[in-house]
Amino acid sequence: MIIFIKILLAHILGDFLLQPKSWVTEKEAKKWASPKLYLHVLIHGVLILLLVWDFQYWALALTVTVTHFLIDLAKLSFQNKSTKTSWFIVDQLLHILVLVGVSLVWFYPDTSWFWIFESVGFWTILAAVCFLSFGVSVIMNVLLEPWSLKIFDKANDSLSNAGKYIGILERLFVFVFILTDHWEGVGFLITAKSVFRFGDLKESKDRKLTEYILIGTLMSFGMAILTALATLYLIKTF
Q1: d(CA 174, CA 227)
Q2: Torsion angle, CA of 108/111/114/117, rounded to 10 degrees?
Protein backbone atom coordinates (compact mmCIF):
# COMPACT_ATOMS: atom_id res chain seq x y z
CA MET A 1 0.00 0.00 0.00
CA ILE A 2 2.84 2.39 0.82
CA ILE A 3 4.23 1.96 -2.70
CA PHE A 4 0.85 2.78 -4.23
CA ILE A 5 0.62 5.96 -2.12
CA LYS A 6 4.09 6.96 -3.29
CA ILE A 7 3.40 6.44 -6.99
CA LEU A 8 0.08 8.25 -6.56
CA LEU A 9 1.97 11.16 -5.00
CA ALA A 10 4.39 11.07 -7.94
CA HIS A 11 1.41 11.35 -10.29
CA ILE A 12 -0.04 14.31 -8.38
CA LEU A 13 3.30 16.13 -8.32
CA GLY A 14 4.05 15.37 -11.95
CA ASP A 15 0.66 16.24 -13.39
CA PHE A 16 -0.29 19.26 -11.26
CA LEU A 17 2.77 20.77 -9.58
CA LEU A 18 5.59 20.19 -12.05
CA GLN A 19 3.67 20.84 -15.27
CA PRO A 20 3.48 24.56 -16.09
CA LYS A 21 0.56 25.92 -18.08
CA SER A 22 2.94 26.72 -20.93
CA TRP A 23 3.79 23.02 -21.24
CA VAL A 24 0.12 22.12 -21.49
CA THR A 25 -0.44 24.76 -24.17
CA GLU A 26 2.53 23.55 -26.20
CA LYS A 27 1.45 19.89 -25.92
CA GLU A 28 -2.04 20.75 -27.12
CA ALA A 29 -0.60 22.66 -30.09
CA LYS A 30 2.14 20.25 -31.18
CA LYS A 31 0.80 16.99 -29.71
CA TRP A 32 3.32 14.12 -30.22
CA ALA A 33 5.86 16.56 -31.68
CA SER A 34 6.08 18.55 -28.45
CA PRO A 35 9.32 18.00 -26.48
CA LYS A 36 7.39 18.96 -23.35
CA LEU A 37 5.27 15.80 -23.68
CA TYR A 38 8.34 13.58 -23.43
CA LEU A 39 9.85 15.67 -20.64
CA HIS A 40 6.55 15.49 -18.75
CA VAL A 41 6.33 11.69 -18.82
CA LEU A 42 10.04 11.38 -18.00
CA ILE A 43 9.46 13.46 -14.88
CA HIS A 44 6.80 10.97 -13.78
CA GLY A 45 9.25 8.06 -14.06
CA VAL A 46 11.99 9.92 -12.21
CA LEU A 47 9.59 10.97 -9.45
CA ILE A 48 8.53 7.35 -8.89
CA LEU A 49 12.14 6.19 -8.54
CA LEU A 50 12.96 9.09 -6.21
CA LEU A 51 9.94 8.53 -3.96
CA VAL A 52 10.22 4.73 -3.89
CA TRP A 53 14.02 5.02 -3.56
CA ASP A 54 14.64 1.47 -4.72
CA PHE A 55 15.95 0.79 -8.22
CA GLN A 56 14.48 -2.72 -8.22
CA TYR A 57 11.19 -1.02 -9.11
CA TRP A 58 12.61 0.35 -12.37
CA ALA A 59 10.21 -1.83 -14.40
CA LEU A 60 7.24 -0.44 -12.47
CA ALA A 61 8.46 3.12 -13.11
CA LEU A 62 8.98 2.34 -16.79
CA THR A 63 5.51 0.81 -17.10
CA VAL A 64 3.86 3.86 -15.54
CA THR A 65 5.95 6.19 -17.72
CA VAL A 66 5.05 4.42 -20.98
CA THR A 67 1.35 4.11 -20.17
CA HIS A 68 1.28 7.75 -19.07
CA PHE A 69 2.72 8.74 -22.44
CA LEU A 70 0.16 6.67 -24.36
CA ILE A 71 -2.78 8.02 -22.34
CA ASP A 72 -1.62 11.62 -22.68
CA LEU A 73 -1.01 11.18 -26.41
CA ALA A 74 -4.51 9.74 -26.88
CA LYS A 75 -6.03 12.67 -25.01
CA LEU A 76 -4.07 15.22 -27.02
CA SER A 77 -4.97 13.49 -30.29
CA PHE A 78 -8.70 13.13 -29.77
CA GLN A 79 -9.75 16.03 -27.57
CA ASN A 80 -11.12 19.27 -28.95
CA LYS A 81 -12.36 22.47 -27.38
CA SER A 82 -15.82 21.08 -26.62
CA THR A 83 -14.56 17.74 -25.20
CA LYS A 84 -11.56 19.04 -23.29
CA THR A 85 -13.18 18.65 -19.87
CA SER A 86 -14.43 15.15 -20.62
CA TRP A 87 -11.03 14.03 -21.85
CA PHE A 88 -9.35 15.50 -18.76
CA ILE A 89 -11.59 13.36 -16.54
CA VAL A 90 -11.02 10.25 -18.67
CA ASP A 91 -7.29 10.94 -18.69
CA GLN A 92 -7.07 11.14 -14.90
CA LEU A 93 -9.26 8.06 -14.37
CA LEU A 94 -7.07 6.01 -16.73
CA HIS A 95 -3.91 7.15 -14.96
CA ILE A 96 -5.34 6.11 -11.58
CA LEU A 97 -6.47 2.74 -12.97
CA VAL A 98 -2.95 2.13 -14.27
CA LEU A 99 -1.46 2.95 -10.86
CA VAL A 100 -3.89 0.58 -9.16
CA GLY A 101 -3.22 -2.10 -11.77
CA VAL A 102 0.58 -2.02 -11.56
CA SER A 103 0.39 -2.02 -7.76
CA LEU A 104 -1.75 -5.17 -7.80
CA VAL A 105 0.46 -6.91 -10.37
CA TRP A 106 3.68 -6.06 -8.56
CA PHE A 107 2.61 -6.73 -4.98
CA TYR A 108 -0.30 -9.16 -5.24
CA PRO A 109 0.57 -11.25 -8.32
CA ASP A 110 -1.03 -14.46 -7.01
CA THR A 111 -4.28 -12.85 -5.93
CA SER A 112 -7.35 -13.32 -8.08
CA TRP A 113 -9.54 -10.23 -8.18
CA PHE A 114 -12.26 -11.66 -10.42
CA TRP A 115 -14.38 -12.42 -7.35
CA ILE A 116 -15.27 -8.73 -7.31
CA PHE A 117 -17.16 -9.14 -10.59
CA GLU A 118 -19.07 -12.08 -9.14
CA SER A 119 -20.11 -10.13 -6.05
CA VAL A 120 -23.74 -9.12 -5.61
CA GLY A 121 -22.56 -6.00 -3.78
CA PHE A 122 -20.42 -4.82 -6.70
CA TRP A 123 -23.18 -5.13 -9.30
CA THR A 124 -25.82 -3.73 -6.95
CA ILE A 125 -23.77 -0.63 -6.18
CA LEU A 126 -22.84 -0.19 -9.85
CA ALA A 127 -26.50 -0.41 -10.88
CA ALA A 128 -27.50 2.05 -8.14
CA VAL A 129 -24.82 4.57 -9.14
CA CYS A 130 -25.86 4.37 -12.81
CA PHE A 131 -29.53 4.77 -11.86
CA LEU A 132 -28.84 7.80 -9.66
CA SER A 133 -26.54 9.38 -12.25
CA PHE A 134 -28.58 8.85 -15.40
CA GLY A 135 -31.94 7.24 -14.70
CA VAL A 136 -33.19 9.65 -12.05
CA SER A 137 -32.33 12.66 -14.22
CA VAL A 138 -34.55 11.37 -17.01
CA ILE A 139 -37.35 10.39 -14.62
CA MET A 140 -37.35 13.80 -12.94
CA ASN A 141 -37.34 15.62 -16.28
CA VAL A 142 -40.42 13.68 -17.35
CA LEU A 143 -42.25 14.10 -14.05
CA LEU A 144 -41.44 17.79 -13.67
CA GLU A 145 -41.89 18.76 -17.31
CA PRO A 146 -45.50 19.98 -16.96
CA TRP A 147 -44.40 22.50 -14.34
CA SER A 148 -41.02 23.41 -15.86
CA LEU A 149 -42.69 24.43 -19.13
CA LYS A 150 -44.88 26.90 -17.24
CA ILE A 151 -42.11 28.31 -15.04
CA PHE A 152 -39.14 28.42 -17.42
CA ASP A 153 -40.86 29.75 -20.51
CA LYS A 154 -38.04 32.24 -21.04
CA ALA A 155 -34.32 31.75 -21.48
CA ASN A 156 -32.47 31.86 -18.19
CA ASP A 157 -28.87 32.69 -17.44
CA SER A 158 -27.93 29.43 -15.72
CA LEU A 159 -24.93 27.40 -16.79
CA SER A 160 -25.56 24.70 -19.38
CA ASN A 161 -26.51 21.40 -17.67
CA ALA A 162 -25.41 22.81 -14.29
CA GLY A 163 -28.61 21.71 -12.56
CA LYS A 164 -28.26 18.22 -14.01
CA TYR A 165 -24.74 17.75 -12.65
CA ILE A 166 -25.62 19.30 -9.29
CA GLY A 167 -28.47 16.81 -8.98
CA ILE A 168 -26.22 13.87 -9.89
CA LEU A 169 -23.59 14.89 -7.36
CA GLU A 170 -26.05 15.45 -4.55
CA ARG A 171 -27.68 12.05 -5.12
CA LEU A 172 -24.34 10.28 -5.19
CA PHE A 173 -23.32 12.05 -1.97
CA VAL A 174 -26.57 10.96 -0.30
CA PHE A 175 -26.00 7.42 -1.58
CA VAL A 176 -22.46 7.25 -0.16
CA PHE A 177 -23.48 8.82 3.17
CA ILE A 178 -26.22 6.24 3.71
CA LEU A 179 -24.09 3.29 2.62
CA THR A 180 -21.41 4.37 5.11
CA ASP A 181 -24.03 4.99 7.83
CA HIS A 182 -23.49 8.74 7.99
CA TRP A 183 -27.04 10.03 7.89
CA GLU A 184 -25.90 13.33 9.36
CA GLY A 185 -24.24 14.00 6.01
CA VAL A 186 -27.65 13.88 4.32
CA GLY A 187 -28.92 16.50 6.75
CA PHE A 188 -25.87 18.64 6.04
CA LEU A 189 -26.52 18.48 2.28
CA ILE A 190 -30.17 19.46 2.70
CA THR A 191 -29.19 22.37 4.95
CA ALA A 192 -26.45 23.55 2.60
CA LYS A 193 -28.73 23.43 -0.43
CA SER A 194 -31.47 25.27 1.49
CA VAL A 195 -29.04 28.06 2.41
CA PHE A 196 -27.88 28.51 -1.18
CA ARG A 197 -31.42 28.41 -2.55
CA PHE A 198 -32.89 30.75 0.08
CA GLY A 199 -31.51 33.88 -1.55
CA ASP A 200 -32.87 32.99 -4.99
CA LEU A 201 -36.29 32.12 -3.65
CA LYS A 202 -36.45 35.25 -1.48
CA GLU A 203 -35.51 37.53 -4.36
CA SER A 204 -37.80 35.90 -6.90
CA LYS A 205 -40.89 36.03 -4.67
CA ASP A 206 -42.32 33.44 -7.05
CA ARG A 207 -44.47 30.86 -5.31
CA LYS A 208 -44.49 28.56 -8.33
CA LEU A 209 -40.68 28.55 -8.53
CA THR A 210 -40.43 27.86 -4.80
CA GLU A 211 -42.81 24.92 -5.04
CA TYR A 212 -41.03 23.61 -8.14
CA ILE A 213 -37.63 23.68 -6.43
CA LEU A 214 -38.99 22.03 -3.29
CA ILE A 215 -40.62 19.24 -5.29
CA GLY A 216 -37.46 18.67 -7.31
CA THR A 217 -35.25 18.64 -4.24
CA LEU A 218 -37.46 16.27 -2.27
CA MET A 219 -37.84 13.99 -5.29
CA SER A 220 -34.07 13.89 -5.87
CA PHE A 221 -33.21 13.22 -2.23
CA GLY A 222 -36.08 10.76 -1.89
CA MET A 223 -34.95 8.65 -4.82
CA ALA A 224 -31.36 8.68 -3.57
CA ILE A 225 -32.44 7.57 -0.08
CA LEU A 226 -34.72 4.81 -1.40
CA THR A 227 -32.01 3.58 -3.77
CA ALA A 228 -29.43 3.51 -0.98
CA LEU A 229 -31.77 1.63 1.37
CA ALA A 230 -32.64 -0.86 -1.39
CA THR A 231 -28.94 -1.36 -2.10
CA LEU A 232 -28.18 -2.06 1.55
CA TYR A 233 -31.07 -4.52 1.71
CA LEU A 234 -29.91 -6.43 -1.37
CA ILE A 235 -26.31 -6.57 -0.18
CA LYS A 236 -27.30 -7.88 3.26
CA THR A 237 -29.90 -10.32 1.91
CA PHE A 238 -27.96 -11.83 -0.97
Answers
A1: 10
A2: -70
